[in-house]
Amino acid sequence: MxxxxxxxxxxxxxxxxxxxxxxxxxxVDAITNQPIIGASVNIKGTTHGVVTDTEGKFYFQTGxxxxxxxxxxxxxxxKLEVTVEKNPVIISLREERQELDELVVVGYxxxxxxxxxGSVASVPKANLSQVTSSADNLLRGAVAGVVVTQSSGRxxxxxxxxxxxxxxxxxxxxxxxxxxxxxxxxxxxxxxxxVTYAGASVNVLSTINxxxxxxxxxxxxxxxxxxxxSRGANGVVIITTKKGTKGQDNISYQGYFGxxxxxKKLKLMNASEWASLRNDVQASIGQAPxxxxxxxxxxxxxxxxxxxxxxxxxxxxxxxHNLSFSGGDExxxxxxxxxxxxxxxxVLGSDFKRISLRANYERNYSQKFKFGVNANxxxxxxxxxxxxGGAAAGRNPNPLVSVLLTAPVVPIKNADxxxxxxxxxxxxxxxxxxxxxxxxxxxxxxxxxxxxxxxxLFGEYKFNKELTAKVAVSGDVLNTKQNYYAPSNTTxxxxxxxxxxxxxxxxxxxxxxxxxxxxxxxxxNHKFSALGGYTLQYTKGEVVxxxxxxxxxxxxxxxxxxxxxxxxxxxxAYESVLKSWLARVNYSYKGKYNxxxxxxxxxxxxxxxxxxxxxxxxxxxxxxxxxxEFANNIKGVTEAKLRxxxxxxxxxxxxxxxxxASMGSVNYSFGGTLYTGLAPTRLANPDLKWEKTxxxxxxxxxxLLDRKINFVFDVYYxxxxxxxxxxPVPLSSGYATVLQNIGGVENKGFEVGLTTENxxxxxxxxxxxxVFSLNRNKVTExxxxxxxxxxxxxxxxxxxxxxxxxxxxxxxxxxxxYKTNGIFQTQEEVNTQPKINSLANTKVGDRKYVDTNGDGVxxxxxxxxxxxxxxxFVGSFSNTVSYNDFDLNFSFQGAYGxxxxxxxNQQLEISTxxxxxxDYFK
Length: 922
What we know:
By secondary structure, the protein is mainly beta. The chain contains 12 helices and 45 strands. The strands form 10 sheets. The chain has a 19-stranded antiparallel sheet. It has a 5-stranded mixed sheet with strand order 10-15-16-13-14. Helix 8 runs antiparallel to helix 9.
């Protein structure tokens, strides 16, 4: 033993390596710059290799002289060879794009992209790094066929998302969101807690912190969405949050701070121009002018008040902070994160704040049993512009609109710095106050508080390698509290001596899902999987609103409504149940030919007793062309796959209890005394059934030049039938309309997606993503002999009085009105050309309209289609440029051909004695 020990010592001394170089390095993600833990780093041509630590760092002490080549690899990333010339070095790895072996999240599981038959698109990683208030904004310009439209610019405001166009006229058109297995329909009405609340609803998807998102998949065709049955007609967006990694403990912080400014203001008249316009209007109606030439000239140097600039904030700050902890051991993994988002709006008095907490945990208790929990809590507060209160008071309902219409000769503030609410000769005073919209924006309280808890628990048991059972229970609790107070010196509060409203809405949903998953192989050529399950979802909601007016003072705002005169309160409650059976079978032969059959049966309490259940089947086929022998001779083609799918999905977003007859309160006089009673308000329709959408899709996935160019093309056709429409009925029935299943809508179009690796060197890379989609929508039928109708639009707001028509042969969102033909230039034209209803007061300078039917006068019969709000096509061009440790992401996106009804511009084109106008009147 002693001799052996001495010999070993001698050998160790004689074989001490010669140290030629030392190398410190770090491996990071090329997009996020986050360290990659566990990456393999080898010196090419040797057996010398190391693995990166928890900070992504590695170290070599080697006999190799600079320069030498490192081979760096990690699962999910492209293998990279890097020539090292000096110490230290930072190596950036890029994720593999469009790998057919990549696992993609689909309904109730995952699939290799190679085996997928349906149209499934992934949001690029670069998009997920964007700072935004809401998760749905990450879809903007990211996926072909998806159009995101924000309802307003207010922080936290709701958005609408359309996947391959709108399918319904009166039911929901929003896609279904699945967040870590929790099914969410983005019903933004749940963020409106009371009938007198006066602001735009808050986007309930803003309760999901975008920084927590690991991936987003968009399911677009029937083969991909039919597994969700009655909830898949408008597409499905699957959101997966970040999880921990076994054997790696990480702490990460991300921060962002910036400023926002209004990019462009409307061009309005200044004080002198407006004074001249007022004189002209007065002269045309025989009034004496209000301003002398000397006064108009003086207004060029003093007395001009820019109300528009006063309403907007300069350099409104926005900040975002996220702190996360993640990791795990051999049996478990965890991820905990906290986020804070704070955005001030560019409009005075608007802002949005969000605090979010998320925890994900999974543990393998044994080789057969796994348990997991996902929990998310979000608290957000939004403040913004009020509307409804102003409408109730009979004034302009939107303070921002009033800002633009207020005469520029009216002072915004008094000499002492207080708001001017008494000196405006061009507006009508109420209780001694005249409207001052800047005062309204600054002093009206309009606050929305959202609290949301999303939680899911699941247990998974493997009976053997082939059969797995999973039971999941999830809950979604959304509580909205809204506080509104218009002081007595504001436009809304002046007429009521203060107006307060408090509303609260609570919506809770519990979902139980029970599934069996079977996966097996038959020999080398046959792969088979089957999914079956039963789900049950129960939803309950409550809403209450109370308010008061005529307060002694404004000191307590909405906190003491008992001190005012009560206004009519409001309360409501509802519940619904959805039961479902689901199944899916996948079969693959040699990995070349893939077949998918899926179906779902949904039973919903929202439909009539005769049509409680709906059935939604689908089928899909894909062919991996490049796995064929003949494809080996096709140069440059790395991967090619053809997809063909067909199926049916449904829509249950119609509200609750609509198949049932309803009663409502009415007032009536009996013996000179006013009483409240009940009367029927809706006819029963036990045959009310699902809207159904039949979909057909053909797609091609193509990768060229070793995946440097990746192309996706889809063409589709969708036909929705049994539309739920309120159809007019004879008034002798005692009702004006009844909800029935009639009519149809179709959507057809194509989508193109192109990702390219333009430049790739050791230190520099440039990748691009191009998406283009074209959708054609039209109403195919309405039924009951009806060819057209005008949908009911809420009254009160200038921006809601849109001349929209639903007409067979036209797209949804079509505008209906008179076509213009210039303006009357001479009195002879006024005397000889058609006028609206032959109005005698038509004058030179008034607008001409086209006499489409040639009867010599302009009447309602001359109205026609003015275009549609739906664009002819949409597209985007996104780029990621990286140089060493620096990344630049920029994108261009837009839509062409869609019309906008600009009610505000309509008002600014009307020259009146009391409101401002567009500057082209000068």
